[in-house]
């Protein structure tokens, strides 16, 4: 299986992050992606001018089999290009990238 991650940093914008989650849920249902497209939220704290705000990062794992490489590439291209994802500083992490292992651990550690 070829895994890739899409990391979206929504900053303190919880509303945009939830909109992104709903969009992915609709795609999962419409295209029968079930376990191929999983997402988790990482909500860390960020301190600005003495006030704490929640920092929302959405991590999407694409997990397609080797014979579905074209489908995976289409989703890697499509998701970051659509609203609300494109405003969230999209970052693609592929297998073989030096950031892959830490991103995979971070994803697995989230609930």
Structure characterization notes:
It contains 3 helices and 4 strands, in the order E-H-E-E-H-E-H. The chain has 111 residues and is of the alpha+beta class. Strand 2 and strand 3 (51-64) form a beta hairpin. The protein has a single domain, classed as Alpha-Beta Plaits. The mean pLDDT is 92. It has a 4-stranded antiparallel β-sheet with strand order 2-3-1-4, sandwiched between helices.
CATH class: Alpha Beta
User: What order do the helices and strands follow?
Assistant: EHEEHEH
The N- and C-terminal alpha carbons lie at a distance of 22 Å
The tally of structural domains comes to 1
CATH structural fold name: Alpha-Beta Plaits
What general outline do the C-alpha atoms trace?
globular
Task: Summarize the entry for a quick read.
The chain is an alpha+beta fold.
Which terms summarize this structure?
4 strands, globular, alpha+beta, four-stranded antiparallel beta sheet
Can you lay out the helices and strands and say which pair or pack?
Blueprint: E1 2-11, H1 14-30, E2 37-48, E3 51-64, H2 69-81, E4 91-94, H3 100-109
Antiparallel strand pairs: 1-3, 1-4, 2-3
């Amino acid at each position: 299986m070829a895994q890739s991650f899409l990391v979206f940093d929504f900053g303190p914008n919880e509303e945009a992050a939830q909109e992104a989650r709903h969009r992915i849920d609709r795609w999962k249902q419409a295209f029968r992606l079930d376990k191929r497209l999983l997402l988790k939220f990482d909500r860390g704290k960020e301190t600005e001018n003495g006030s704490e705000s929640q920092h929302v990062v959405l991590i999407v794992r694409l997990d397609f089999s080797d014979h579905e490489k074209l489908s995976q590439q289409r989703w890697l291209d499509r998701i970051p290009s659509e609203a609300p994802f494109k405003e969230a500083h999209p970052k693609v992490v592929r297998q073989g990238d030096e950031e892959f292992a830490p991103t995979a651990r971070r994803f697995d550690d989230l609930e």
